[in-house]
Amino acid sequence: MNGAWGVRRNYHAHAEEMGGVAPTTPLFFFMPPTAVVEADRHGNVAMALGNSEHQIEHEVELVVQLGKNLEPVLMAVGCDTT
Description:
Layout: E1 4-8, H1 12-17, E2 27-31, E3 58-66, E4 72-81
Antiparallel strand pairs: 1-2, 3-4
């Protein structure tokens, strides 16, 4: 993948839980190709989660790769650890 686009705070309840407010219009952001981690042939992914002294929030995301005509080419599960 050449990177990925995401939508920020699109779940109102989760935005409030995190101490924020969901926007009235979508906020998009881009993740570079270095943010994409692929699984090995067994489906395993090695991922560093940072310093264990801090709370780690995790989310599971639906990732859809679109083709030139915006047709779905690939679907995967994404994990956001913030």
